[in-house]
Amino acid sequence: MTPRIFALSAAVAIAAVLLVAACSAGTKAAPPSAPPTAGSTISISDMKFTSPAAVTPGAKITVTNSDGVEHTVTADAGNAFNVEVDEKGTATFTAPNQPGTYAYHCNYHPTMHGQLVVQ
Ligand SMILES: [Cu+2]
């Protein structure tokens, strides 16, 4: 092996080591996958609520209103939650900390009802 070829081989070997090091460092730096947050949105469309299957206690709930009129998401009992949602707007509220099934309605439209399951 001539010195020149040896130097080239050494350079390639060093480059390969650096490449592997960079790759493994990148893998370690990757954040752990976040838990699924799907289902924290109540959507309103055509005068109907669509609730998530269930939410965790104290979860931040986003309400999206696709209708051209204002709605509210108001708990039937107590003051668990009550939020106004502008036409074509969004609003947020905090789910109750106490697990349970919370029936809710819209203050403006008595036919609109939904349920929020906290567990
Ligand atoms: Cu309404």
From TrEMBL:
Key words, A-Z: Signal
InterPro entries according to UniProt: Cupredoxin, EfeO_Cupredoxin, ET_Amicyanin
Signal peptide start-end: 1-29
Domain of life: Bacteria
Residues in EfeO-type cupredoxin-like domain copies: 19-118
Record-given protein name: Cupredoxin domain-containing protein
Organism name: Mycolicibacterium pallens
